[in-house]
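Exercise 7. Predict the structure of AkeP protein from Apiospora kogelbergensis.
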Amino acid sequence: MYASKVAQFALAGLAAAQSQLDAIPAGFNASRWAWVSNENPLLAAIPGEFNRSGFQAPSAATVSDSRVAAINEHINQTNFVAYDSRFFEIIGPDATVEQLQVLPFQIHEAPCYIPETSQLYFVEWGGPGGGENGGHDYQYVLDLKTNTLTKVRTNPPTWNVHGCVYSKGKLHVVTDGGPHETGYLATIDPSTWERKTILNNNNEQPFISFNDLDMDPEGNYYLTDSLSGWGRNLHPYGAPTPPTVYFVNGTTLRIKALMYLPDGNTNGIAVSPDGRSLYVADTGASQVKPSRRNEQGPRDLWAFDFATSRATGQKLPLLTNRRLLTRAIEYFYDGVRASRSGWIFGAGGEVVDVVDPESGWIMGSIRVGGGGNEPVNLVFGENELWIVGKGGCVARQKHS
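Solution. The predicted structure, encoded as tokens:
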């Protein structure tokens, strides 16, 4: 009897919250979805007292109005929060979020989907195994058919991988560096786990500590050189430059700085599917040495276009038309990826946001449960989005 009353109260609270939110389309599960917009007067002008930090989710806000509190409680139980009607079409009614592994370590990064073997490669970054600040010469491989997790080591060992892209049978990785080496760009053969370093300097100057990378359709690299690994003392070297975005020609390995962020920090990076635009996350709100969060610091996603040659019309390694695409609703975007359809997926806080690449509107958020499960990076599979992050979560968001 008591359990039945609890269930009735829970259903009543859900119904109350849903009645105060925009109605979701037919065919979408109301327990997994919420549609939030300022067309709702209750959310456009919140009664009473309310407040939250920019590092918190909207549903974590402190509110005095019981109706808004009920809305937030409902949102905290959902997997998907729509801010724009197009988000329903992007995700689809059959989408679910499933947690596959619970790894009790610090942060997981650098996911790569290997289609030939149906495996997910990723790393534990900055966690146990290397002292207080971390340091690892191993990586993980998850068999997606059996959900079996295995540790692997490359030959030679690869320390502190931070970013990964899979292309033409190889894992293309960047590292923070390790006890005896600075950061570098390398390839790993997943059939043999042989690692080949292909770039470790900019005209004989070391890098700070690489954070992430992406590749364009021509096979060129875009690398973010970040303060993050240096700030965690993952290698014993100094920071020779400000945080910088580099272009590396995939054939000649000729390198060029595209931009640097003297007041912020480089992090996630993504190339549009047509190769014409570049998206860069500035996560300067997370400061290092000393490590602290600065609410006045940047939490922004920037967009750029590539210049073209007047003579040939070919794309040049020059960025133009810099524009602030969006600021993360909560926290900041760590991992950033562009889908085949061009939507930008940014992981940060307790969500993966989907951003319109033209207007910068945030279409909606994919939630991975909160409560310590925080997405840090992501990769697209066949019909899934694979997410790794804090709290040891490895999750997949299945869509139609």
